[in-house]
Amino acid sequence: MKKMLWGLALFLCSGSALLAQSFPGTWQGALKVPQAPNGELRVVVKISTTAADKLAADFYSIDQRTPAIPATALTTNGNNFKMTIERVNGLYEGKMSADGKTINGTWTQQGNSLPLDLTRATPETAWTIPEPPPPPKMMEANAQPEFEVATIKPSDPSRPGWGITVNPSGVLRTLNTTVNDLIKFGFDMHPKQVVGAPSWADSEKFDIEAKPDKPGMPSVKQLKGMVQKLLAERFSLASHKDKKELSAYAITAMKNGVKIKKE
After folding, report:
1. Which residues of 244-255 are buried (b: 16+ CB within 10 A; e: fewer)?
2. Is 35 helix (H, G, I), strand (E, B) or coil?
């Protein structure tokens, strides 16, 4: 009886290992994104096995010409697959088909989820991964830029998503952002620190495209300064700083010392 049980355990472990080994390879699929030039963003995921016999993965958004972004965590459970990419605050969860040719799943980023089905690529079907663009030329450090041209439009209620981005030329683009979103970004504030804004500042959403009057990609400080000026000029924002008591959590050591262990 002991030999039979031992043989069964060995079979189950081997089967699980074989299933995990079926994930390595190149997988590709497309996210349906209305604001993308062609209505979609193509994704490539390259899964490999490390020297420690663990799975690793690199993520590419090839239409955005991103360099390889390594997965922070990757786990499998049977034919279920889960991949976390902290650098872009992304999570992919999917299930591989019985023939090992597709993974049907969902991509979640910034709280928004979209279907993403991946197909195992062959040398003949694999998409070309373009070289990433050269590093952007930064704006002069002592420049005090402002937006030369800014287009502000009410957002389309039927278009999903949210974002604040700046391209290498310094052009700011936002999607479905409220005035409160811009205040929090431009002034680096917690939502509870914003007091006295009109009710529509947190309900009406806008899409913005704004070009700076200085060449190059602005630093974070320069970008926030431009957003502050935009709020004042286009939304008539007048503000001042004041002190206010707010509730907060504090992490302190107990009398017996710190018991949190570093892993």
Report:
1. eeeeeeeeeeee
2. coil
Residue 84, C-beta contacts closer than 8 angstroms, at least 6 positions apart = 71, 72, 73, 74, 90, 91
Question: Of 61, 29, 20, 50, which is closest to residue 126 (Cα–Cα)?
Answer: 29
Exposed/middle/buried for 103, CB within 10 Å: 0-12, 13-18, 19+?
buried
Residue 241: which of 183, 177, 179, 181 has the closest Cα? 183
Predicted TM-score of the model (pTM): 0.54
Spatial distance between the Cα atoms of 231 and 172, rounded to a whole number of angstroms: 14
Amino acid letter, 207: D
How many Cα atoms are found within 13 Å in the side-chain-facing hemisphere of 128? 2
The structural domains of the chain, with segments of one domain joined by +, span 22-120, 147-234
Q: What does each C-alpha distance from 59 to 67, 72, 214 come to in angstroms? A: 8, 11, 33
Averages of pLDDT over runs of 10 residues in the chain (263 residues) are 39 41 91 84 95 92 91 94 92 95 93 92 95 88 95 92 88 94 91 85 95 94 95 90 79 74 63
**DSSP single-letter state for residue 219:** P
CATH of domain 22-120: 2.40.160.90
Query: How are strands ordered across the β-sheet holding 80-85?
Result: 69-70, 55-61, 40-49, 25-32, 112-120, 102-109, 90-96, 80-85, 73-77
**d(C-alpha 46, C-alpha 66), whole Å:** 14
| The pair of three-digit structure tokens given for residue 2, joined into one six-digit string | 């002991």
The first and second tokens of residue 188, run together, are 């680096």
Burial of 200 (0-12, 13-18, 19+ CB in 10 A): exposed
